[in-house]
Amino acid sequence: MKSLPRLAVLLATTLIPSASYAAEAGVDRLGKALPAWSALPFVGILLSIALFPLFAPHFWHRHYPKVAAAWALVLLIPFVLVFNGPALHEVAHMAIIDYIPFIILLASLFTIGGGIYIGGTLRGAPATNLGILVIGTLLASWIGTTGAAMLLIRPLLRANRERRHKVHTVVFFIFLVANVGGCLTPLGDPPLFLGFLHGVPFFWTLTLWKEMLLVAAILLSVYFALDTYFWRKEDVLVRQGTGAREPLRIEGWHNLFFLAGVLAGVIGSGILHLGEVTILGVQQHVQNLLRDALLVTMLALSWLTTSKSTRQANEFTWEPIREVAILFAGIFATIIPPLTMLRAGESGELAFVIRTVHDPGSFFWATGLLSSFLDNAPTYLTFLSTSLGRLWPGLPEKAAILQLIEHNNAYLQAIACGAVFMGANTYIGNAPNFMIKSIAEEAGVKMPSFFGYIVRYTVPFLIPAFVLIDLVFFE
Description:
By secondary structure, this protein is mostly helical.
């Protein structure tokens, strides 16, 4: 941690030669002025998330807010001092347009989902677990990956409480419910919602059903075989089940109305056009502000009207959303230079990334691999803009998107699938991943480390499925 101030000085020293250029160019040219060094704090926070829980878990649990703040400040202080107005604008834009709505949506779905308790006896047999994964995958596109995950993760954990082998079940839940299942509507995953706001028709995402069906079928089949193998290794008493069986029941069902309110707010913000207001120099749509106000209202009503006993039965705590809010604040702050350089295309220091994308297959892998470590929503927009610039330069964005869909639909399908599917590659690829991990660990499940997740699950199970998707749809 003592080396962080030195890194800040080094960053400031490296950034200074580009400062005069940035001052003249303004925000639009900032990506051309930033050096590759400015991505170091982002790399640092990712490595911290990956390594501290593995090598210093007690330190991380107590001090992760300080670590996230340190990496954010080591970037923001020299960034703002050197680039002044353009840097402040980028920070404000990230906070107002991306981070605050992102956290409001997650917090509302987390709170409302945590107020719905599915009680009764569920036994974590392979068929039961498979059924929960199928239901969650189907729900994710319609109530969001966060909503589906928060609704079903706790019943899944309770059903498998007596099992010794259950980590794989939580991981495949992340794969399917928190990621793959969200690709059929703009409500499912943030990248698709941003695409909807930028002009992609609402029902266009239904064209991704073949890709989703293939990935889901592969992962569900592999999961069922894997869970059946581990089920046979469980104790006989666990497999037979003990104790009286209780009928299934739902408590806090009125939260479904609040969930409907969240969905109405999200849909309305994409349909209504109520003008713009300026907040700290950033243009924000009035309908987006009304959406966020409605979501906060739904959150508050859920909290006030749901009994404490229901939340206690659901083992509800604020720690998972607190951890996500803090860590993603650091990620969103330090991600500004990499995304800004990517938006600059071949004129930025990350031009080598842009040059690798030239056909649907390369867009699928570039979008997906960057979405695994960057936030998948701005990554989706970056490669959407890249495809429009390559294929329909000079056209207004909405007109270019319609031309892209009509004449080069595979490009947009590849970008959408890469962003949504490969968000499952790491814990930080999509926000629900981290919340599920945190909830599972609170329930006593020993989840794999950052790298353990990638090595034990992403590489052997996800990557082969994505290679097949590429060969079938994007070659």
